[in-house]
Amino acid sequence: MDGSLTLVVLVVLTFSTALNLFLILRLAAKVRMAAELSAPPSSLPLGRVAPAFEGSRRADGARITSKDLVGQAVVLVFLSAGCPKCREKAAELLEILPAIRSSGVALWIIGADAAHDISQVLGKSPLLDHAVVLDAATRQRLNPRGAAPFYIFIDDQAVVQASSFVGDENWRSFMGQMREIVQAPE
Q1: How far is CA 172 from the centre of its chain?
Q2: At CA 98, angle to CA 120 and CA 87, rounded to 5?
Q3: Distance (Å, rounded) from C-alpha 129 to C-alpha 100?
Q4: Which is it for strands 131-133 and 63-65: parallel, antiparallel or unpaired?
Q5: Tens digits of per-residue pLDDT, 130-161?
């Protein structure tokens, strides 16, 4: 082979390799975008009325509906026995439970999945009185990705004010307010 033929072959191979790399990167970007578009949202839209739902209290089987939310602030907390952080968050909730009760905020604790019994996280603590059983479709509407530990703050008009993983800025602010109530002299 002479030098000019080798040079032509190298140029063609270099161009082919560059084109192949370019096409692979474009395809990867399109696949990633399609996956993001098809994934459920990570939380409920803020400023909208919470989806209608019904369930039952685990302690006594009493029926609870989203209509029961109107007129009081509500915190829905999703925990799972399959989540290592959930036990820690349950202990924090237990610590502020007196403040939650005295402030008139309704606390409902929901198992994030059907695979685990919420009592595995709550034990026999007073938090078990706040456990609510929801069917899978309802859990999916409220917590689209089945995240845990996850929360939803709903105001007295049943409007979603915050929704995310426990531990974010809104959650820390709520915990701070509840701890101030617990520590306030009577």
Answers
A1: 15
A2: 25
A3: 13
A4: unpaired
A5: 999 988 888 888 888 888 899 999 999 989 99
